[in-house]
Amino acid sequence: MNIVIIGHGGHSKVVSDIILATEGIQVLGYLDHKYKTKEVINNFICAPISEVREIKENNDDVRFVMAIGDNRVRKEIIETLDLSSDDFISLLHPTASISSSAKIGYGTVVMPNAVINADAVIGCHSIINSAAIVEHDCYLGDFVHLCPNSTLAGAVKVESGCMIGSGATIIPNKTIGEWTVVGAGATVIDHLPRNSKAVGTPARIIENHYIKTG
Ligand SMILES: CC(C)(COP(=O)(O)OP(=O)(O)OC[C@H]1O[C@@H](n2cnc3c(N)ncnc32)[C@H](O)[C@@H]1OP(=O)(O)O)[C@@H](O)C(=O)NCCC(=O)NCCS
Q1: What is the tens place of the pLDDT at every residue in 126-167?
Q2: Pocket probe mutation, ligand 1, options 169, 206, 209, max atoms within 8 Å of Cβ
């Protein structure tokens, strides 16, 4: 199977490595706004993101994966693409430990040494970065980024769009509201509302853009 990576910056290097480490799939090319025309570089097709349909129609057995770390940018770009859920592949690095009862949505990427334990549910187009831990019964929405070495204890709920910074820990049964950012190294010991930013140990909210309606 041929994989086209959307986004050709630093994060795409790690995504490429997962493909290299996985049998039966190979990188066909990269789409990125930095390319103005379609060209072949080091045997890879490199083209603007607007070429996505053309690439899909003119290549056999092709799937796409996003390699853009910023959750909002990743979501915005996907919304401009004329692709369906079947066009995306989930990538799971072979060193990741993933329970047979865990569920992982399309387009999600699981990096080296991540752990996803029993009955965890992970949405679509999320990033479970290197050595992140998702304990049993956790629930993650779409467009989440768990940064390297972050830990979700049992039954934590992380709603869509959240970024959990490197090395942050969330204690069991807490909910992080959608599009909230948790700083690197934070220890979250309580629920966090949506659209907030929290840092430190114990985590304190330093910004809150949540506007209650109705
Ligand atoms: C939380 C974070 C997003 C805040 O970024 P920001 O909005 O630019 O915030 P600022 O740098 O302006 O900092 C605001 C305040 O929070 C503090 N702060 C920021 N990040 C912090 C952290 N991780 N832990 C403790 N305090 C932190 C700053 O010292 C500053 O405090 P002050 O107002 O008393 O001076 C960022 O610092 C962070 O931790 N990002 C995680 C990055 C990461 O893990 N990336 C991995 C990519 S793979």
Answers
A1: 999 999 999 999 999 999 999 999 999 999 999 999 999 999
A2: 206
Give CA torsion, residues 67, 142, 1, 110, to 10 deg. Answer: 70
What pTM did the predictor assign?
0.96
Q: How confident is the model at residue 214 (pLDDT cuts 50, 70, 90)?
A: very low
8, 125, 136, 209: the active-site residue:
136
Number of H helices, E strands in the chain: 3, 24
DSSP codes, 6-50: E--SHHHHHHHHHHHTSTT-EEEEEE-TT-SS-EEETTEEEE-GG
- Which residues, at least 6 apart from 44, have a Cβ–Cβ distance to it below 8 Å? 27, 28, 29, 30
